[in-house]
Amino acid sequence: MGLLFRCYRLRKLERRKSTSTVQPDQIKGNDLGVEGEGFVRKFRWEEIKAATKDFSRVIGQGGFSNVYLANLSGSSHGAVKIHAASDLLNQVFKQELDILLRLHHDNIVKLLGYCDDLEKLHEREKEVLSWKTRTSIAFQLAQAIEYLHEKCTLHIVHGDIKPSNVLLDQYFNCKLCDFGSAKMGFSSTVVPLSCSRTKQVMVGSPGYTDPHYWRTGLASKKNDVYGLGVIILELVTGMKAFCPEKGQLLTSIVAPNLRDLSEHGAEEKVAQLVDPRLAGEFDLEEARCLLSIAALCLHQSLTVRPSVSQIIEMIKEKITSIGFLFTQAKDCH
């Protein structure tokens, strides 16, 4: 089972390329047997294999799926997500397809098609993302999450915000992907899993999953806010969220240093937290702003954590380098 997305030249936030083409005929989304709008195509498995050069380039991995680089017609690149086959994962596949057909936003991955045959960005090249690029990614990712939380008719919780689910195009514009853990219809801040007749479990990832969710089993928009906070912390520090060798979480390592960042004399503390590979090429006050936002996002209390709309306003107010990105997200149709 596979989903095909347009992403042009791809990178992972945690990048890649190939040769072969797919010529898409388009069919209506409603012909897929799922609700939704737009035009997507049902691909044959042979086409998926050709476009991915026999699945030669992995650009993302999850617990039950891999994402491969694909070459599309017109020399553009895309991504193919392949699910493992099982009754449960068939349900997840159809749910993700249903959600993606409803979404239309510049910072959310665009669905081109799918294949339901029952066959089966940290790893990027050694470039160092500039400070301006890092702030841009943080802002665009926040815009994508805000669109899901507030601007869709049915509010959506993504449920698995992490770098491998953020694809970057050739201009480092972010595209949020992987809606296999997403939930629709979240109008309140917190929704108990028991409210649903069919128990739905949000799949988490080490270092990114909200500890409040693990403790309580309560699914919330604030789970996505927590994941955004971890990614912002990674963008600022250049460190990974989880170190398997040491068994340490970035949030645990950095947490003590996130206190009192607004106080006079905290500049040295902020500078020490910023990725040393930037060699001082960053704005100290912008770094302080992002670290303060991360601290709020990671707060144990859900009520203290800001909404994504509030995060966007804080970024707009304090980070001048993303002024050119102030665009209105399109409404979900």
TrEMBL record:
<keyword id="KW-1003">Cell membrane</keyword>
<keyword id="KW-0812">Transmembrane</keyword>
<keyword id="KW-0547">Nucleotide-binding</keyword>
<protein>
    <recommendedName>
        <fullName>non-specific serine/threonine protein kinase</fullName>
        <ecNumber>2.7.11.1</ecNumber>
    </recommendedName>
</protein>
<dbReference type="InterPro" id="IPR047117">
    <property type="entry name" value="PERK1-13-like"/>
</dbReference>
<dbReference type="InterPro" id="IPR000719">
    <property type="entry name" value="Prot_kinase_dom"/>
</dbReference>
<keyword id="KW-0723">Serine/threonine-protein kinase</keyword>
<dbReference type="InterPro" id="IPR011009">
    <property type="entry name" value="Kinase-like_dom_sf"/>
</dbReference>
<keyword id="KW-1133">Transmembrane helix</keyword>
<keyword id="KW-0472">Membrane</keyword>
<keyword id="KW-0067">ATP-binding</keyword>
<dbReference type="InterPro" id="IPR008271">
    <property type="entry name" value="Ser/Thr_kinase_AS"/>
</dbReference>
<keyword id="KW-0808">Transferase</keyword>
<keyword id="KW-0418">Kinase</keyword>
<feature type="domain" description="Protein kinase">
    <location>
        <begin position="53"/>
        <end position="325"/>
    </location>
</feature>
<dbReference type="Pfam" id="PF00069">
    <property type="entry name" value="Pkinase"/>
</dbReference>
